[in-house]
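Dock nicotinamide-adenine-dinucleotide; give full complex structure.
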Amino acid sequence: MSLQGKTAVITGSNSGIGLGIAHEMAKAGAAVVLNSFTDRDEDHALAREMADTHGVEVRYIQGDMSRGDDCRALVEQAGACDILINNAGIQHVAGIDEFPVEKWDAIIAINLSSAFHTTAAALPGMRKAGWGRVINIASAHGLTASPYKSAYVAAKHGIVGMTKVVALETAQEPITANAICPGYVLTPLVEAQIPDTMKEYDMSREDVIKNVMLTRQPSKEFATVEQMGGTAVFLCSDAAAQITGTTISVDGGWTAL
Ligand code: NAD
């Protein structure tokens, strides 16, 4: 599968799943635009390393995905955006009656509204280029719920719904829109949830991993960032040209339960 000549813009890609997807896109020959809200030397070094490893153009563009104008500017500054991967996301775990309002607003902005802004900015270019792929990184929490994750579950269900709308609005064009729904992947985002969950359930780290996180993942294994990247590359293939408006679960059987 060659993505040579295509440019993939991946929001929130200096870490975790976004970075894993970026590597798989670059490996398949796509030029890559990395993004996060920081502008550190190591962010730009990451882009240089990835370019050296895969022999493709890789740029890092700073942009805060909680801000609509930054989302739109990211797509504009990328120049080309054949493959848009809306991946940036944050999490906060608390009961709904104690959920901090600023956390609710930030999760809805970063995990949901950013994809509205980037998609709106990217579609005209995809239409002009005559090809496009919108890939939203939702979650098993886009299809099911868990306690203490009201904002996250709401945002992820929201992005699954928006994916369907984008697919219908582009159905007669060579553009597809789909959502990947990962189960648990051991990334910094998941790592950060462990202390709060330990507190909520009064459990050890090992018990939280085994009995809270992976309890709903029948495979009893974390999914990997490489598997998310491979699924995204597949969605860019000709075999996937008629796959649109749907979700692909990569969750070790979670949503089969
Ligand atoms: P992560 O914390 O490793 O990565 C999140 C990325 O988003 C980072 O690059 C971070 O810098 C970036 N980001 C955060 N706030 C941002 C902002 N305001 N602007 C720009 N970038 C921002 O987490 P991850 O686990 O790799 O999560 C990536 C996506 O996958 C998220 O949307 C998450 O909800 C989803 N997801 C993760 C899992 C999992 O188990 N790890 C499961 C299902 C879905």
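Observed: The helical segments are 16-27, 41-54, 68-78, 101-129, 150-169, 188-201, 205-213, 225-235.
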